[in-house]
Design goal:
By secondary structure, the protein is mainly α. It has one domain: Glycerol uptake facilitator protein (Up-down Bundle). Helices cover 78% and strands 0% of the residues. The longest helix is centred in the last third of the chain and has 36 residues.
């Protein structure tokens, strides 16, 4: 047995020793890590069709956040200053996330760190991770495109928002340089990875909803870039005449996905895992 195999055996042994705490005791770092690895492994066991359908559903459901964003921004037009209106959008931004996460659909940013941990624990390969990320991203994007098309059509028909509102939201999201969007997306991915981590320590639905609301509201209030909600926001802008070009959309989407992936995989999965491993070694 090689040194690396011995080290991995020791890590697995320590994880096996962790037991689930009772309801009155907070979970330890090891217990949360073990649960995250197990949950990540369950996703790897699902069929490709199941993952695509679940992630497509998440892409549709996250669109309800956009519906509320556009409706509230249109409602506040002329009543408050525009910068104030954009800050107030954080009140409704979390709704789509609550639907997706409590409903157990697969959202890329919420699953990024979760799916990385089995790779760090040598239970899955990097190739499997990238393949799974690919399925989730494709499903999320397709669902977002479909929802954006529906909402851009129905919004003006219901008089709840107009094309100008769609353009304002898209411009608000994309009007930054490459590096600003990248770092912003890293911070957003970091927050979403922490969301997944913190949710593992909570069992009842009310607490989970509060945690989701709190973290995603912070993400919105700070104006951080989320690749899947942003997909709906920017693609909707692409559908409005003379608003955005496809190049604008593609550049935003690639940078936001990259940043979110780095934030969740590096700043949550890698650091949390290494903190546990380092404690065992030293």
């Amino acid at each position: 047995m090689t040194q690396k195999e011995k080290e991995q055996q020791e890590i697995d042994s320590e994880l096996d020793k962790t037991t689930t705490s009772n309801d009155n005791v907070s979970k330890s770092h090891g217990e949360i890590l073990k649960q995250q690895i197990c949950e990540g492994q369950e996703v790897y066991k699902k069929s490709s069709v199941s993952i695509l359908l679940s992630s497509f559903t998440a892409g549709l459901e996250i669109g309800f956040s956009y519906l509320l964003l556009a409706t509230l921004l249109f409602f506040l037009q002329g009543k408050v200053a525009e910068d104030t209106a954009f800050k107030l959008l954080s009140l409704v931004y979390p709704m789509g996330f609550i639907m997706v996460i409590v409903g157990q659909s697969i959202l890329f940013t919420e699953q990024t760190s979760l799916l990385t941990l089995p790779v760090l624990n040598k239970k899955q390969s990097l190739g499997n991770l990238l393949k799974l990320w690919g399925f989730v991203i494709v499903g999320n994007l397709l669902g977002g495109w479909a929802m954006a098309a529906i909402l851009v059509w129905i919004g003006p028909k219901l008089h709840i928002f107009d094309a100008e509102t769609v353009s304002k939201i898209a411009a608000h999201v994309t009007d930054y340089s490459f590096w600003v969007i990248l770092v912003s997306a890293i911070l957003a991915g970091w927050l979403m990875g922490l969301l997944s981590w913190v949710l593992s320590s909570s069992k009842d639905t009310i607490s989970r909803i509060f945690i989701i609301y709190m973290i995603t509201a912070v993400l919105s209030f700070a104006g951080l870039h989320h690749s899947i909600v942003g997909n709906v926001e920017v693609f909707a802008g692409l559908l409005v005449p003379a608003s955005l070009s496809f190049g604008d959309y593609a550049q935003f989407q690639v940078v936001a996905l990259l940043g979110n992936a780095i934030g969740g995989a590096v700043f949550v999965a890698l650091l949390k895992y290494r903190a546990f491993v380092t404690n065992i070694k030293y």
